[in-house]
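Summary of Year 1 activities. Much of the first year was spent building the evaluation harness for sequence design. The harness presents a backbone, in tokenized form, and records the residue chosen at every position. We chose the following record to illustrate the format because it has been used consistently in internal testing since the harness was completed.
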């Protein structure tokens, strides 16, 4: 029977719940909104299956990450890349699996604006997997579904490093399972996001139907947070400087506790391919991409290398040294430090307005950010960017 400090170290992957033959483990939301196991000791038969597939209990270093193949990379299809958050790597990989009778497992928004993982061969559903979702997705029972189908189909699973570890433990190292990991900073709870959504829905008097944290209307390097509502209204703000939810996310204000203790960093990564933004891209690289996004791609296994070679004609890519990526992506190799205001934020989660709660606990230059937002609303910001380009 799993037995450790769930609040500090559980990744919320549901493996224990899905493997238990007696249904002795139930995953429920704690007071912060994170998924945690509750164990019925009267039902438990001490079979030990949950211990064997727990990502926390079964961690091991999997690779010498710096000795793998590192690329700067972007999809040559500029329209397709513009619809992705970074360099458009995932859509190309996913298409290969669909074209070869395979399945793709990734994260989409459901009708309640909750991120969930699904397994599908439907191109429309795969398209919904594009774009960053800045909170923890619920992978539900997709590991079970993958295990049932893995002998007959090639399957691509994409998610955070801890989710990939969970799926690999549940399914096993199968030749038909390919994994694409994301360079992950950390994950907030759905409860925080839902309160933010509710706040915006109240303001716009309509249900939210679409969220994009990194719209590229101003380019990949100046993302816009865009929210659409059923009544046709739309909210757009500069993502990194004016959207309260995104700012709190980037400062790690509401991450899961295990994110500050994450084992799946650096040599702990075990995905076949690892992708994320190539922050620190040079002006020349930005101009080459038309400011529509560029990714860091790490081929972390022979399977990953073989898969990339099958689709490489779709990309423009060059080898880069790991240090260039790591310099601007430190969380690729180390867990984020716990935000000093995190506990205070969650203490007030149920008794304070969410915008007020975030504002009280983040660091921001309100005057500078306000000026930027005014320039954006008056379209001067775009003019300045165009002149710089």
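For this record, the design step produced the sequence shown next.
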């Amino acid at each position: 029977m799993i037995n450790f400090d769930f609040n500090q170290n559980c990744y919320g992957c549901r493996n224990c719940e899905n493997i238990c033959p007696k249904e002795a483990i139930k995953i429920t939301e704690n007071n912060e909104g994170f998924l945690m196991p509750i164990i019925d000791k009267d039902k438990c038969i001490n079979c030990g299956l949950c211990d064997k597939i727990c990502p926390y209990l079964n961690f091991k270093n999997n690779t010498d990450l710096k000795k793998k193949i590192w690329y700067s990379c972007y999809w040559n299809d500029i329209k397709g890349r513009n619809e992705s958050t970074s360099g458009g790597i995932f859509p190309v990989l996913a298409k290969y699996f669909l074209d070869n009778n395979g399945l793709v497992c990734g994260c989409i928004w459901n009708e309640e604006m909750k991120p969930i993982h699904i397994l599908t061969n439907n191109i429309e559903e795969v398209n919904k997997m594009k774009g960053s979702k800045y909170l923890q997705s619920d992978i539900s029972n997709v590991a079970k579904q993958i295990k049932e189908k893995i002998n007959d189909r090639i399957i691509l699973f994409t998610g955070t490093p801890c989710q990939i570890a969970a799926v690999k433990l549940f399914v096993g190292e199968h030749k038909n399972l390919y994994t694409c990991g994301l360079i992950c900073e950390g994950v907030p709870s759905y409860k925080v996001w839902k309160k933010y959504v509710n706040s915006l829905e109240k303001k716009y008097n309509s249900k939210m139907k679409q969220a994009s944290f990194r719209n590229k209307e101003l380019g990949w390097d100046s993302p816009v947070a865009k929210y659409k509502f059923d009544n046709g209204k739309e909210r757009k703000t500069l993502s990194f400087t004016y959207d309260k939810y995104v700012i709190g996310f980037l400062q790690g204000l509401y991450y899961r506790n295990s994110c500050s203790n994450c084992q799946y960093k650096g040599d702990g990564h075990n995905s076949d391919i690892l992708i994320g933004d190539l922050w620190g891209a040079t002006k020349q690289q930005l101009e080459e991409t038309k400011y529509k996004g560029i990714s860091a791609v790490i081929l972390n296994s022979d399977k990953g290398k073989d898969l990339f070679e099958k689709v490489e004609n779709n990309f423009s890519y060059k080898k880069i040294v790991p240090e260039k990526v790591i310099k601007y992506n430190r969380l690729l190799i180390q867990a984020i430090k716990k935000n000093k205001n995190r506990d205070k934020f969650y203490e007030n989660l149920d008794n304070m307005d969410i915008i007020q709660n975030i504002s009280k606990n983040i660091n921001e230059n309100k005057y500078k950010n306000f000026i930027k937002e005014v320039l954006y609303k008056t379209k001067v910001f775009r003019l300045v960017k165009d002149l710089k380009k």
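Residues 192-243+338-388 form one domain. Quantitative recovery figures across the full test set are reported in Table 2.
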